[in-house]
Amino acid sequence: MPYYSETESQQVREKFEEIVLPWPEVTKKKMFGSPTYSARGTILAMLVNGGIILSQLDEEQKAALLSGTDAEYFVAHGRVIKKWVLIRIGEVADIERFIPFIEASYHRAMK
Fold this sequence. Notes:
It is built from three helices and six strands; from the N terminus they run αββββαββα. It is an alpha+beta fold. A six-stranded antiparallel β-sheet has the order 1-2-3-4-6-5. It starts with 5 loop residues before the first helix and ends with a helix.
């Protein structure tokens, strides 16, 4: 099963891009088959089926997300990646409540 399918995730991608692509120095490219967003060359987020991976959160931000039921560490090929948090997105509207975390990942990537 692919990490990302445009058929399955197009609406999430469009909403996410509406938010992040206007930010200064945000670029998009495909990595590992998924839309990946960077700022100043540092990955800040990646889209996968059913969610958004944020890669630049500090420990406090990760803990805040992981304390809820909508997030978990990203797992790749059976390996837990504790630097990256996967936020599960059930409905496109869910993205709105995670904007502060998306912004935080962006700001850390800009440093």
